Queue: 3 jobs
Job 1
Amino acid sequence: MQNDRLLAYFMILPVVIAVLAFVIGPTYNVGTLSLTKIVMGQERGFGTFSNFTALTADPVFWLVLKNTAIWILGGTLLCVLVGLGVGAFLSVDSRLTTGLRALILLPWVLPDVVTAMAWKWMLHGQVGIIGQTLETTGLTEETISFLGDPNLVMWTLVVVLIWRKMPLVALILCAAIRSVPDDQIEAARMDGATAFERFRFVVIPNIAFSLTAVTVISMIWITAEFALPWIMTGGGPANSSQIMATYIYQQSFEFFNWGIASAMSVINLVMLASIVALYLYINRRSWASEGSK
Amino acid sequence: MNETPRTFYWIGLSIIGLVIALYILFPIFWLFLASFKTQSELAQLPISFWPESATLDAYKALFSPTHQKGQLLDWPRLIGNSFFVAISSTILVVFFGTLAGYAFARLHFPGRDLILGGLLVSRMFQGAALLLPTYRLMTTLGLQDSTIGLVLLYSAFGLPFATWIIASSLREIPRELEESAMMDGASRLQSMAMVVLPLATPALITAAMWHFVGAWSEFAFASILLESNENKTVTIGLASFVELFTLEFQFVGAAATIVALPIMLVFFFGQRYFTRGLLAGAVKG
């Protein structure tokens, strides 16, 4: 038994070291960096909030917060709503839906650089097929530049985000819906409940747990998503689609404002930590049962 | 049920299904079509749906040095780098993930559940917030602008999830099989290698596929770490078209097709392994 214990620590050592070095270490490092005064790329003294005051003094900061709220809250809400609709459709028994269940994961596995390029092409301001179709069918008077219009760009990005993230939400909810006991649905049907009533009062309460869990997980995914907005707009035009992730990248590697970038990174990490805490809280029962095995 | 409502039901179902299939496939298909069009065709209005005279020029340009105008990156090189990074880190992740997964599933030691939980939670802290400190770390280690550095980084990112998938599947394998092998005189490591691992192969394939897809697709960390053109990966190559070309989407289409192809192959041929890891993947994000 003593041998087994040593063997176990030896076996998990590489994983623990890798995570300490490349995940925990950098997390700690960005925390200390955010509290360090940085002048011209040189570290000048620890123990200051000047990076955070400089960050909040930047007028772009408040715009970034607003855009990030649209990105995370709007994105999560739409992702779950559309995912629920598609998931409900996929849960129907038919050869068609079985095929679709296999196909629908495609946007989820494709590299986000490919997704960004595909949508950038469809949304192109002059020859994009979406803008052109809307114009030739007479729905709009002129070709809309979805990514060039400061009022539209943020919501356009959310639409692309839904395309990418919704499939897994739909599949998880589809699995949950299919595990709802048939006799409950049948009983409601006998009592004269319409299809909508059966969905609202039988299916939804049964999948409530999956629905909450998948909502919180979507928030984590969306908070972490970077390549999609960065490649599609780079935060533009004029910061109108700048979110935390793109702002951190720009401040770090284009403007070299490491103080501001690390302060924003810490705010981003605190936000992620709250969502992760929420996720762990929702899952507390399954963690407990995992531990008892 | 009589015939008429059933027909309507079937038609309604098919229409919704068709709309969803179109929604999923069209963006990719449209960019794929662009790769066969000429530049003038891409710029003309009204938009032509099918290529007027399909051409492979864009692909030829990406692959032949004579067509490279100093703007195009060396695509054979990019593809080689991406395969090197994705395959090497997949091997590391599956090897060390199996060792750790076995320990978490089979051995008793103080702090076991806490360490496994900690590993998984640590991976939820991902994304842009770690870009700057990771850049600083890799520069200090002298691993910036190196594909080896990228292999180490991706392995560290992928290990917690792989460990967890492998540990969960090892828990389902009956202990008795292993115990009887050990009664017959096999050591613990021998019984692990000869008895347990063959049964866990599907989980190892699942872990390998998810990691390969993630490593092949990664963009953010590759873009801040790799500086010289000979070290870059395919996602960086594809993203570089944002600055270089405005309307030359035939190159973007060809490059995107090349980037997407290995992922599509893994996806279609490994479908059942993918769905195995599906719910597990929900945790990974």
Job 2
Amino acid sequence: MKLEFSGTRALVLGGSCDLALCLAGCMIKAGLFPVLTYRSQKGQDRISDGLKAFCGAYSTCYLDFSDRDSIGPLLQEDPVIPDFMVDFVQGDIECLIASGESDDINRYFSQNVSFRAEILKKVARMMLGQKRGRLVYISSSAALRPNPGQGFYSAAKLASEALYRNLGLELAGRGITTVTLRPGYIDEGRGRQFIRKDHDASIGKVPIKRALTAREVAETILFYLSDSARGFNATEISLDGGLTAGK
Amino acid sequence: MKEVFERIRQMLADILDVEGDEILPETYIVRELGAESIDLLELAVSLNSGFNVEINDGDIFLSRLRDYVTEAKGKKDDVVLYLLERLPFLKKDRIEEMMPDLEDGPTLKVKDLVSYVEWRQENG
């Protein structure tokens, strides 16, 4: 099946992670133009290295969820309104609810929930001007089934899912829709580290008995950006090989 | 005022799907034209891009008007002066006109949008 897209410009938040780079390659091959955000020189270098085969077929811009001032200039230098947005950003925090430092907790939610709401406001208003936009939030199976120590992570994911869900609820009538994906174990980045640490406790619980590859997750995201998936709006979809379906 | 009003009239007509001649400076946007929150959001985006001015939704749509009135009364301040400080795009006579009208519902009129845009154009 050849996927068709209503638009070409795709803003990819957290553009330097492995999954984002894999997605960007798939997007370019599908005729889209990704604009990847980075928060450091290291991230910008990773994007350049990861996409060196696609020079000129993408662009980058600075955005740091811990730097509120970075919202203002977002897309200012490159003011073409995005038709799509894919959001991979999520800070890491692992501690028990009863042992989290107050400052860390406040900072975590400020960066991972409040800042995200501000980004959504900005991008949604840009999309509203053209009455078209599709946003995909990459959540996690841990949003619903966290391990001990993942409480803050899970809470921030669920809060972010709620933002996307309501955006899709509020603006669908104006052509702007949203979908949240909840991937399970992925053999890439943080997921790969976790799987290596304890293979049986992770992959052993997945009915398909393997982790997802970055490529299959990227292709799934691409599908949800496409016109074929327009019926999915304001909803959350598991992409975990059946991990969260049973006990 | 006329040029700004005409452009706002066209925006409102497009967004609310009403005839342009139904829209006058004295027309109430919510009470008479039936604008909903999503329409106001779309209008804010249109005003921002159409006039290239920053739009504060809370200010232009007078969303905090009642809160300000309550605050002023709580502090025993002069309500009109208090509102003039917080909503500087409105003239004193317009605020005085609004006061007895508050109980009948949202007081926002088309002319208030015009005032806001003109004030933004002059003050950035």
Job 3
Amino acid sequence: MKKNTLSYKCQQYAMFAGISTAAFVAVVILPFVYGLYLTFTSWDGVSKDKPFVGLSNYTATFSDAAFWQALGRTVIYSAISVILVNVVAFALAYLVTRGVKGQNFFRAGFFIPNLIGGIVLGYVWKFVFNRAFVALGTSLSVGFLSTSWLATTGGAMLCLIIVSVWQYAGYMMLIYVAGFMSVPKDLIEAAQIDGCTPNQTMFHVTVPLMTSSFVQCLFLTITRCFMVYDVNLSLTKGEPFNTSVMAAMHVYNQAFTYKKYGVGQAEALILFLVCAIVGVTQVYIGKKAEVAA
Amino acid sequence: MKKFSALMLALLMALSLAACGGGGDTAPDTNDGGAAESGGGKVNITIFNSKSEIQSQFEEMAAEYSAATGVGVEVYFSSDTVAAHMATRYASNDPYTLAMVDAKDIYSLGPEHAIDLSGEDWVANTNYAVSVGDQVMGFPVCVEARGVMYNADAIEAITGTPFVPSDYATLDAFRGLLETLVAGGMESPVGIMKEDWSLAGHFLAEVYEEQDDVFGYVDGLYAGTSTVADNEKFNALMDYFDVMKQYNYAASSPIAAEREVSEQYLAEGKIAFMFGGNWDWSMINAYDYSEHLGMMPVPQNLDDGANQKLVGGGSKFFFIDSSEYTSDEQRQAAKDFLNWLVFNADGNKFLTEDCALVPAFSNIAAENLDPLGASVKEYADAGNLIDNYNYLPDDHYSMMGAELQKYLAGQQDRAALAAAIEQYWASTTPVER
């Protein structure tokens, strides 16, 4: 059988990647293209006809101040969360790979928040912020704890960040743990024999060899933070005064609650572009920094 | 040959996967079944229920109804917003035979998706059906109204005299009562729900609904010719709001007040008053409530009669799908079901006793209503309901809710609030009606 013909190659492709390609096209590419089409219509979400309106949804998007505020808020939230999640995750991973007693137990423990769905997590933490902290604050008369943080503009954002860090740090920790374990022991020993201090070993040997873990973790946290919706919904619902509405929530409201489907879709597209640009740039830079052992 | 068989296997797997997915999607779809079986006899209909508190009653009723009539009834519920849920069902060409939606959804969905019910017998028995053009499209499920909920037991425990709500129709009298309560040991006799749908969707809406010429006033808001800041009604209602703010149990951090807690306080008599509606009963009855609760009009120092009336009317409406995905037999079965609700004793019992809804039909007697519902029925029967304004823009409750929250939290004054309301309306595309 000839291995160089087009039909042979097609067969090979269909055999190995056919199913996933079909699934990918069906659930990602087609909806994406259809969504793109919807941005040029003034569809309300239920109507049978979808009037073509050209670029007016995009002009509406650019004049939608609430959307840009939400996007700006999301960028700030993501920047802080991404840094904190990764710092905490890295520290945890470092601690649970040092051979402390019961480290597997700790690994499982730190990972568990990630297994709780975002909605439930939001309600749990809402209780903590609204009741537990306040009860604690009033009984100990600690001023900043005695009113709910969720009721203040900056406080609600802070709460969102705290919950995100709590939720994602365990997951990212696992990736960093894998990174730590993949660094060859002999390299570390060689570095120590050459007279490296623990800090030097860490930053000149271990960390560079873990670059791929950093790239993965950063990519995951950035995209997840930009797309945050579930925690946002159950923890703050955009309150107070709509000052904790993140981009994804604004898009949802715009499309489904305010029934401006086309505008919502156009805004979703912009959110996607922002997210894609940030994500791809980060992976590109990260990949360049990778070194081989 | 080996490769060929491998390819076939891969194909088979792909197909079986697709089959699984397809099966999962169509399983709850009784429309096909209904259409296919319609020749044979049994008709299946689907009902969308958008009142979460009566879902279990609905499911029980569906089973009994099916057993009694032979019509298969499946009841669905979604916690999504009604419009969003209907959007997904219509997008997947899988509409409900009978869907319970809000009045504004009848206006937006009706012309395309609902059938005309003008010829039905129940139309003569209600004032609350929703018509689009000259066609009746919405079947009113119940009557709901807004006003000030009170706990009479808590009040009487302090005043020592029977509580007669009509004695406190003016804001001055009401304020006097609050002061008495405070002096009598109830430190903060009032709760305020900070939810945007309550603040803007229910409370602020009364500013429009209680105008002499509602449509004219709203049209003026769109055009920028009606004013808010110097409007008599706005100021009367905000005067009331200020009093509530002053005596709010959560005055130090009003935005942190949780609805569950406020309702519990009202139920147990820790507070005596809160603005709300008879739907709040579904939360109040989860607590150890005291016996004599009720609803009264919002106290105001205006003699336009609004302080003698609750605001409300028909709430939640059924419409029957008109698309080709519903068969005529299904439509007939859905009509029969609506008639059953109105004219059959079991149907009446389901509405008023099982679900504790205030009936929207004059021929249905309701004896065992909850206290809030009983108040609403009293006002409704006496013709003392001010109509809902069902044409608020979709983002009104969210945008204006945020502004009222700012006012509630003391972050903006009345003038700024009024300006924000005027500005919102002037920059919004008018809703057709």
